UniProtKB/TrEMBL annotation:
<keyword id="KW-0808">Transferase</keyword>
<feature type="domain" description="N-acetyltransferase">
    <location>
        <begin position="1"/>
        <end position="163"/>
    </location>
</feature>
<dbReference type="Pfam" id="PF00583">
    <property type="entry name" value="Acetyltransf_1"/>
</dbReference>
<dbReference type="InterPro" id="IPR000182">
    <property type="entry name" value="GNAT_dom"/>
</dbReference>
<protein>
    <submittedName>
        <fullName>Acetyltransferase (GNAT) family protein</fullName>
    </submittedName>
</protein>
<dbReference type="GO" id="GO:0008080">
    <property type="term" value="F:N-acetyltransferase activity"/>
</dbReference>
<dbReference type="InterPro" id="IPR016181">
    <property type="entry name" value="Acyl_CoA_acyltransferase"/>
</dbReference>
<dbReference type="InterPro" id="IPR050769">
    <property type="entry name" value="NAT_camello-type"/>
</dbReference>
Amino acid sequence: MLIRELGERDASAYYALRLEGLEREPRAFGSDADSFRGTPLDAVGERLRASDNVFTLGAFDDGRLVGITTFARETGAKTRHKANVFGVYVREDARGRGVANALLGELIRRARQISGVEQLHLAVSVTQTAARRLYDAHGFVVYGVEPRALKVHGEYVDEEWRALRLA
Ligand SMILES: CC(C)(COP(=O)(O)OP(=O)(O)OC[C@H]1O[C@@H](n2cnc3c(N)ncnc32)[C@H](O)[C@@H]1OP(=O)(O)O)[C@@H](O)C(=O)NCCC(=O)NCCS
């Protein structure tokens, strides 16, 4: 398995996997599939273009993109010490083989190398048992629960807010 940063040339593979995640796991993500479906491929490529504060990692199995996650640093003078982890998703047929572990491990390793980034934050729906265990294993501590954070097909879903101190 290869883990590398995605760029504009990966836009269509990323688009397909991200859309699959939003469609199959609506409780896992704050974004919704219908809105994402309307995003032009150019805009997806733009988001993948290298920048100081944002990067997306992909996991490749035999050349096929099977897992993704995005790092986004806050940009405000008072919030630049924080960064967020978004969009952790592994294709169903690639699960249970350490793909997410490798992706998150690499994201954390890179985050530690960015000067001034002190903590990582994320939100995870309480329905996502595998993801919660993954974040436990990497040391993300729950610091709050947002009741009814999402409303998915008329059902409310609570989200845990978690942080990992890097320093
Ligand atoms: C969560 C997810 C990314 C895990 O991907 P994966 O590649 O299968 O995970 P890994 O094989 O690397 O396993 C990492 C850890 O996750 C946990 N885990 C994975 N699959 C699990 C399962 N079926 N049940 C419980 N815990 C599980 C375990 O703690 C595991 O570590 P361990 O093997 O040392 O016990 C994947 O299940 C997924 O895409 N889920 C839907 C989307 C989602 O919930 N994303 C999170 C958004 S915040």
